[in-house]
Amino acid sequence: MTSVAPAPARAVAARIRDLTKTYGTGAARVVALDGVSVDLYAGEFTAIMGPSGSGKSTLMHCAAALDAADSGSVEIDGTPLAGMKDKQLTALRRDALGFVFQSFNLVPTLTAEENITLPLAIAGRKPDPEWYATVLDAVGLRERLSHRPNELSGGQQQRVAVARALVSRPTIVFADEPTGNLDSRSGAEVLALLRRTVAEFGQTVVMVTHDPVAAAHTDRVVFLADGRVVDELREPSRESIMERMAAFDVAGPGA
């Protein structure tokens, strides 16, 4: 088992212990996670990096209750996922977790505003007016709320997705390659927005990425290789990330 030692005096948003996950059987068996233990700290922006097949997306999916591990445990804000029924997991994902995906995952027939408030509408709730106004100001989309996704640029669509992730004030926002479908300028704007939600709102953000430029916006980078945590880096820069990736032979594109 490989683990990252917990740092003192930091609140833990997600605690992951001894997580294993395999796919397939026999000769086709793939070990995606091989005893991963890591704490994701509250109020921090964490990047998870590694090459293709390192397990970074699987780790995020298991931590975010989108997939079930074979063994090990995940706690979100002190609440264990083990033993939860489907309805409880659905409620957890809706109320405690926010998601930002590479492909935006907006509903094409809904306006930007309807997409932002969709998770709350499904839950039969209305957004807190003060927080909703704060989120809209942060993403800078007040003039585009009546537009549908096909009337928005890629960067604007991803900002809608970020607003949707934030509107329920989740414990953690999970972002899976959030700049993967964006040009460099739009990507930088989305990363700056995620960085701002951590700095100004105390939001916890966990981002899977293969891009050192994107990871340099974070407080901490956790490196995976072959389904194991191999290192971490705090206060990262693009250069320090690339050096560490080369040193641990985890350089290269990944998903």
Automatic annotation (TrEMBL):
Q: What InterPro entries does the annotation carry? A: AAA+_ATPase, ABC_transporter-like_ATP-bd, ABC_transporter-like_CS, ABC_transpr_LolD-like, MacB-like_ATP-bd, P-loop_NTPase
SUPFAM superfamilies found in the cross-reference section: P-loop containing nucleoside triphosphate hydrolases
Q: What is the lineage of its organism?
A: Bacteria, Bacillati, Actinomycetota, Actinomycetes, Propionibacteriales
Entry keyword set: ATP-binding, Nucleotide-binding, Transport
Q: What is this protein called?
A: ABC transport system ATP-binding protein
> One GO molecular function term?
ATP binding
Q: Where is the ABC transporter domain?
A: 14-251
Q: Which PROSITE patterns match?
A: ABC_TRANSPORTER_1, ABC_TRANSPORTER_2
Matching entries from SMART domains are given as: AAA
